[in-house]
Amino acid sequence: MTLGILLATLVQTSSAGTFQPSTGPAVAWSVNQHHTMIWGGQPYIPMGLRIEGSLAAINAAIDAGARDLIVDLPANGMGWKDAVAHLESKGVRYLISIGSMAKAARGIVVQPQTYRWAGLTEDRTIDFPAGDATSAWMVLVAQRDGALAKAQRVQSVNGSFSMPIVTGGLEHLLWVFPETSSLAQPDYWDDFDSHRDGLLAAFANASFGPGFRGLVDPVGQAASLYGKPKSFVPTSNAFRSELKTYLNEKYRNLETATRAWSVMANDFGSLDDLARLVPLWSGSRGGKMFWDPQRNMTYNRDANEGNAWVDVDHVIQAAAVKRFDRLVAALRQKVDVPIIQTWQGWRGPYELAAPNLTGIGIAASGATPSEWLVGAAPGASSLLRWSKPGWLIATDLKVPRLSDAAAELGAAGVRGFFGSATPETLAEMKTVVSEPSLSQWSPSPLFFPESARNPAAAQRLPNGHYWLPSPLAGNRLELGPMFSGYRYEEAGQSVVVLRSNAGPGRFKLRTLDAKGLVFEPLDGVDPKPKLFKLGVEVALSEVPLIIKGCKEVPIPELAFQQTMTRFMALEKLAEALKTDLIQEKFNFKEAARGFDRIPANFATMRRNYWLATSRLAPYTWVEAEACRNHNMSDTVSLNGLNSGAALWLESLGAIDPRGIFATYEIPVRSNEDQDVWIAARISKANRSDVVIRTMGVDYPITSEPVQAYGPGIAWYKVGVTKFSGNSAKFEILVRNSGPVEVTFDTIFIAPVGMTPNGALPPEIVN
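The structure corresponding to this sequence follows.
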């Protein structure tokens, strides 16, 4: 059975039910088309607090005036009966959230980009902490050609791993594949039934009365519900059995499956042997080999990566979808109330078109509306793409005033608001009032691919529209300063969204397929398209205009003219600076000559415009992934970035004693004060782990991010320094003792006061 068929089989589209409390009459509930819970015929738009399940916390919230609560309780049912009885006695409305951690799956962590030790040249014994790993498969290879020197299973002793190595004086690389628990992968195999049974027992014993309104996070707290692809292989026998069954259904026989996995072996007796294998690579890191943990043998892989990771990830996702959905169905059969899942990334059960869930919970924090929207917008996007009504509630708001956040987030479709029990939110509980009119309307979403953030952003648009990020395939467009936009794929169709940054007006768009274009204005103003020989003329403003039927990106003629003018200015500047632009000039002018015939040449023009700019600029712009001396995880391809790639790190703690680093030689363009910036994706919790070192000084990341763009990248101002000589050493250091995930895009060093512009450097000519 394919995953698509499985999803279609399991999905239930009901957004309604009937709750039978332990006392009193049954209550019908439903979610209306405006994402509002209708309880007993009345809109239920709660404004309350999220608290722990102790009686003291419940009393404090109620004494402050809270009438709606989310109460965190453990999955094992401890404290449920007393907490529920107390809540019912006080006459409040409440949802139960499973506040305990989801059971983590045991398996082999495959992160050769993290668990590696490069540059080993001496015969020695390798020692490093094991964490909670019980054993590890260690692979030593020659760094020059990847030839296998040693592979051994090592047991953890007193919390450490130890293995002697012999290098013969040649440079070697050690990969470590630990057997441990994965916080990113809930256990849907060995412990899931006990979790389900404990939760069902808690439901049965709690005696929910008329105040009960639903359950949040039925699996418990987890970093991810589906884990991460190409990073973990469960060792559960149940998982291996499911993988074997899937391989049999997909490939029909052992020979075909072995060939599809690109395994170079002929001693397998059955699909059981294949289903035990662990791929020992992830992305471009790791070895072209498999490991059999039962036989402790390594098998080579041919040049083709094969389907091993595709099949492993499919079976993990299928198990997660099936068991999560069955858990939700079982809980609703026991007590028919809404069930909410907190948004945890684009890989989740809520990304189905019509999941069995009732709704999505979102978490948001910060002091400003823009910060609240950063947290709320992805969850709103997932729910607003459902084909059925869903309840969108803010289950965890860490904001100065709950009422202010509710006013802002309500416009994005949120229909319930629960804040942390801070002194500020406790103080406003007696005065907060829900807004019943929210139940009568909902935003009309315009989705943009995450990679198109800046110019696109989560915000209100005219006529009830709302701009929201999404996992759509697409990218931003680089059109120069007068225009901005992006392109994405939807239902097999290419869509372009354009807007003018220079005010409203009529603009000519150069395109070869003007007759097939369909224009959809958001503000209701007819763009009045008018065809001409080389394209179409339309009205554009700062309000995005949707253009469908695009075989290519329509290029504003003014963007072409402005690029021509600015490149001429660069040529004059190059003459003044006595700098050679021969290659950039040739490529630019060749593309410009063919623009009438091929408007797509504009991308080549812009690329060479920026190459010429970098040759002449008073600043230094370095792509982080261009580093040759680093031990970070890998270079990753990401849409929405200037070069389309970045330097990525995911680490649970470095085993390399040098720590985690990336070292650059930066050309020095000035001996005056310089601003130092770095563009990166760094969670607030990980900012203290990142340090920039240059000219003998360490600069921690202390500034707030600005100019966010693409998939979560933003600029951090590191500090001000002076460089000497012709080049300077520049280091990115990550000092972590626990989990950290960061992505570095660009290093920007410029005269004081000169700032970057999202994914692009500043202009130097007008």
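Residues 308-334 form the longest helix (27 residues).
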